[in-house]
Every structure is written in structure tokens, then in C-alpha cells.
Input
Amino acid sequence: MASNKSTLPTHDGVAEKSPVFDGLLGFFFAPTTSHTLEIIRIATGLMIVYVHAIWLSRLGDFFGPNALINLEAWRSIHYAGETPDAKWTYLSQTDSLWIASIHEWGALIAGVFATVGFLTRTSIFAAWLLTLLTAHRMTGFLFGLDQVVLMLSSYLCLSQAGSLLSLDRFLSTKFPTLTSQSWYGLLSGFSSVRPTIGGATAPSNECVASWNNTLSTRLMQIHLCIIYLFGGLGKLRGEMWWDGSAMWYSASSYEYQSLDLTWIGNYPVIAALLTHITIFWEVTYIAIVWPRWTRPIALLLAVLVHGGIAIFLGMMTFGWIMIVANLAFIPPDLMRRIYPNAPH
Output
């Protein structure tokens, strides 16, 4: 029987197994289902709809001749002489509010389609691309929310995140003739033709595993680890994270305060403890989130930290999207226990 293990030639021409290479292949490409990615797709799609709705509500402040950052100011930031930087967008070539309005409505509609999972492959890509072009125009108005939304949506483009909780899946059961068309499969990334598993056709309610889902998930996980690592190292450059006063300064900042947390100043030991726990968690996240035994601690602290940011520091959407990003570390098999099959 032929082995599926990868082999490498030795100096004498005898092939030997490469467990490291096999492990890397399995880590990035072993097929998994999309149970976790479906939830991330829905939440990310909703947030894309939200950010474009905000930009549309104040369209004249962000685009057009009276924008807070007009085209002249934008070009002075992004051009060195006649050479532009990498942040190109056609929205920086015109002052037309009509073009900006059409663009934002298109992005919002793409976000709706991505949320409900209609033509999922195309709608996720369109939502990501249109949001990216808007972000490149929004110099001075971007926040962590926009960056994390773009990160998640970019990796969702690689996945099969519309194969379960999606309108595409529903349509495949109601209109199999339509969804079996090649053009529909190309636009949606969903095939109503069931693959064979062990010589038998997979049941229609079965979410078939795919390597795309694993690759998408791993890239999210690695990117999130990098975000936390460099965010924590950046904080360590400030004295407040060493002396334990960072939590107090955050609580006393009226710029971000949504609920009064200044009472924590009466308990300096608690404020210092929370400060040191937060910075320790952020710096070590890259190490403690991968082992099975410490992962629940890392994710619990992520919920507490970002939940606290959302509730007390007025950054509800940022706190929410960071919790969503941490879902990438929830195994699909665990999510499958919550909702094993797609609704019909």
C-alpha cells in the first residue's frame, strides 16, 4: 500500500519520511468544516454593513470638496513628489459625491449579501475590496475596527464559509437546478453536487470538510497572534504598563468613557493587578492560545478584556469584532455540537 507520507531523499538516495513537512501540511491544509467560519462571516458582514452605513450617513464629511480630509490634503500625505504610496484608491481621483455614494451603497449591499451568504464567494470578495478602497481614502479616520474587519474579510475570501449557514445553502435545497449551474457555483463558491465520501454520496445536510477552511482559519489565527504580540510590546514602551497605572488612566479618560469606572482609583491594588494581567495576557497570547490546556484561559481573558473595552471605554464595535476574531480558535467540531446541520 502506498504511503501518503511526504518523503525527502537522503545523501545516499534512500528516501526518508519528513514528519515536520507532513505536520506543516496538516496544520495548514488538513480539511475542516466551516462551522466556526460561518459565524465569523456573519458577524464580519454585519460589521461591514455598519461601517458603510456610518460613512454614508456623513458622506459629505468624508468625501467631496468639503471633506475634512480633502483630496489636496490626502495627496500631500500619500505622495512623495510624483510617486504615490501603496494606498491607491480611485476615490482619491475625484471629488464626486455621486461616485462616493454609489461606491458606499455597493459596499453596503455586498456586506448584506456576505452576511446572509448569497453568492457568498463573490459578495465577500466585493465587500472586502470596496471596504479596502474606502479605507485607503479614509486617512485620519480609520480605527482598529476597520483594520480587523478588513483582516477577517480578506481571509474569508479563501474559505468555503458559505457552505452551511447561508442563503446559497438554502437555495441549493429549494432550487437544485439553479444552483447546479456552473456560473452559480463560480459566483457562490457553493456546489449543490455532493461529493463522495467513502464511496457513497455525502448527504445533503452534511457540511463537507475543505482545506480552504483550514488555511483561512490558520491565517486568521497567526495574524491575531501578531496583532497581540506587537500591541503588547508597544504598550511595554510606556511606563504606565510597568507601574500598574494604565488601567486607572484608561478609566479616567473622558474621551472614551461610556460607564463610570473611576471608582477603581479607590482600589489601586486592583487597578495594578488588572493592568499587569492585561499586559501579560497580550504579550503571551501567542504562546498560551495554541496549547489545548491554556487556550480556554487565553480566550476567556480575551472576552473579559475586549468586553470591558466595549462596555466601559465606549468602543463597543471594536470590542465586539475582536471577540469575533478570537472565535477563529474555536474548533469547528465544538461549534458543530451547537448547530450540526444547516437549516432547510
The chain has two domains: 35-190, 213-332. Residues 225 and 238 are 21 Å apart (CA to CA).
